[in-house]
Structures are given as C-alpha cells and as structure tokens.
C-alpha cells in the first residue's frame, strides 16, 4: 500500500551523509574499521536483551567497530536505534494519505512529533560535542523510549489502536533503545560496579548510613493527616530550597499516603533525600493524562530531578496507567526524569 509513494523521505540525505562519514573515517583510522564478522554480530547481539532486532539492524546497517570495546559498542547500539527511528519516522510521514478520519490524523500528528523527539534525544546521546556523563546519556535514552511510549498511549487514548498501532508501532525502535540502555546499565568488565554492604561503592559513607538507618532523622516531615510540618511534598521542597545550606543532606520524611503531585527538584536543590514509609505505603503518583492523549510524558514526569545527589528510599514513584518504577537506573520506562537514583540490589 505504501510502495506507491515515491517521494523520497527527507531523512535519506542524513542517512547518506552518515554512511559517507563512516567510510571517510575508516580511511584514516584503520583500527576502527576492522570489519565485524557475522560470528561477532551473533555473539555481540546475543548479549543484548533483544538479539533478533539487533542482528537484523546490524545486517541492514553495516557497522564497523570492535565489539569488545565498551565505548564503541554503546555508540553503535545507539546508532542502530537512531537508524531505525529515522526509518520509522519516514515510514510515518508516508502514511498520511492513507488515514481515514480525524482521530487517525490526530494520532498521526502527535506521534510524528513524538518520533521527532525520540530522534532528537538519540542525536543528543550521540553528539560528541556535548560533554556528557553516562547518566546524561541514560537520561536521553530513557526519554527517547518514553516518547515512543507516549505515542502508544496517544493511539490508545484516541481509540484508534486497531488501525494505528500496527502501522505506527510495529518497528524495533523501542527494543533497540532498550538494547543501548542495557549497555549502560549492565555492570561491565571495563567499569565494574562494586558493592559494599549491598550498596554501590560510589555511595558516600554518610549516605550509606542514612540509607541503612531504620528511621533517619528528618529535616522536615510531610503527612497528609496534618501531623507533619507540611501536607504536600511540594511545600516541603519549597521550604528545603529556602533553608538548604551547604552540602549536608536534607532529609524529607514522607508519611504513608498517595501523593498526587508533580515534583521538580531543580538544580539548586542538591542533596535531597526522600524517605517514605515503604514502597507500598508512600506513593507519589501523577495522572496528567486526561483522555485527550495530549501528554508529553517526559515533561510531565511525576518527579523531575535536576539537582545533584538525589536519593530516595521506601517510596514508589508512579505514573499514569499504573506503571510504577522502583528506584533503579535501568528501567527504560522510567517516570523519573533523572536517573541518578540509587541502584540498590534487589
Ligand atoms: C524487527 O526485527 C525483526 C527481527 O527480530 C525483523 O524480522 C523485522 O523485519 C524488523 N522490523 C523492522 C520494521 O525493521
Ligand atoms: C518531524 O520531522 C520531520 C522531518 O525532519 C519534519 O518534516 C516534520 O515537520 C516534523 N514534525 C514535527 C511535528 O515536528
Ligand atoms: C486535557 O489536556 C489538554 C491538553 O493538555 C488540555 O488542553 C485540557 O484542558 C485538559 N483537560 C482537563 C480536563 O484537564
């Protein structure tokens, strides 16, 4: 049905350029061009969560890299995700003439926007001009994945899933993003994650104590029944921003309850620790979705954290559709905008 469309997708130029660029590079750096054998593709892809899409896209986009070098592996994994997102985007653009009604057109428009954002995030993750940390890259990859999830949600909300899901979501973009995220999350031989007392060794001694103490003494208490200093977390955070001094921990204890709040822990708010009454008792939830599907999940994350040193325990952060996430840095559908959470061993 789509083969009739002859207009070349815009992205063809970009793709052509990147292929050129790779071959250009390989002229000058023979060590990077060691062409990867199909055995190497097999064994590299078999280590990813989705080996089949990995192999398929490796064959589509002949990549040259040394598969046992972590940096290169990560980069190639993201490039595969980007390539498949660009293909999906141009496929999308060609669907327009086939749409049958306003709801399908509405879903199409929103999803194209989400696909564009996914591509923007993947480009950020690949941009070597940006000085970024692994956490930054994880955040961009998670955002890329979340945008696709938003497209799916939009299609469902608009009630056009039967016709539109197969058209717009049957690609391997999410899986390839998960494959790249996995390379960042896995303890690797190059950067082994070491643990002491079940905590990664990068956790400071003082924080380790706070995380182990049965009830660390709070600077502020939030309780819905009025028994604390504040009844909303937002008020407590505003107070923390006003009070926060130096680099000590600021501990906010949030008593059990379901908090329907959207929290922004801005850059100036460093070293915040949120402590709940338990993962099933203290739940921060947000439900910005209102049936129109007009939700930009990434920017309506239940909790957005830009401040450094954020840690949390005994809390569940929940977003729409009942999806929840435990504080792990490896959840692609994470509803926290920052991944600088403590990856405790569960
Ligand atoms: C997705 O990957 C599978 C292999 O798992 C492949 O058969 C399929 O053609 C791929 N789909 C797209 C749209 O690239
Ligand atoms: C998405 O990207 C395509 C290709 O770059 C562009 O033509 C289109 O206008 C963009 N759409 C939105 C909604 O940003
Ligand atoms: C639902 O979301 C749309 C888009 O963000 C907004 O314009 C509208 O006011 C919202 N409706 C309700 C009832 O919140």
TrEMBL record:
UniProt keyword annotation of Signal present: yes
Keywords: Aspartyl esterase, Cell wall, Cell wall biogenesis/degradation, Hydrolase, Secreted, Signal
Segment forming the signal sequence: 1-33
Annotated TM spans: none
Gene3D superfamilies: Invertase/pectin methylesterase inhibitor family protein, Single-stranded right-handed beta-helix, Pectin lyase-like
One Pfam family of this chain: PMEI
Subcellular location(s) per record: Secreted, Cell wall
Annotated catalysed reactions: [(1->4)-alpha-D-galacturonosyl methyl ester](n) + n H2O = [(1->4)-alpha-D-galacturonosyl](n) + n methanol + n H(+)
Tree of life domain: Eukaryota
Cross-referenced SUPFAM superfamilies: Pectin lyase-like, Plant invertase/pectin methylesterase inhibitor
Pathway where it operates: Glycan metabolism; pectin degradation; 2-dehydro-3-deoxy-D-gluconate from pectin: step 1/5
An annotated GO BP: pectin catabolic process
Domain Pectinesterase inhibitor positions: 36-183
Protein EC: 3.1.1.11
Biological function: Acts in the modification of cell walls via demethylesterification of cell wall pectin.
Family recorded in the similarity comment: In the N-terminal section; belongs to the PMEI family. In the C-terminal section; belongs to the pectinesterase family.
Protein name listed in UniProt: Pectinesterase
